[in-house]
Request: fold
Amino acid sequence: MSSPQNRLPQDVYKKAALLFPDETDLQEVVTALSQLYERPLNVGAEQLARSVLVVTDGDLDAFRTLIRDLGGDPRDVIVEAEGKLGNPGHAFNTPLED
Reply:
């Protein structure tokens, strides 16, 4: 069985490690993002993982809330992340830049 870290694209893991430097927090974030691959989504898990990191920007409480409340339309998270970066239409299909 692969570790949660191995399931995530390298850019997503690197961004998570940058935003959540505490090892315990990082493990929680990586595990939660990895679980996106097991959920039925109407968007790509990579897109959503990148968007969640952009929206929550290292705020663990915001991360927990967003992951818990993902029962709605995950496209809303992508749109919010695009707006936060000032890049509408980006869609987070490509890796995050450092």
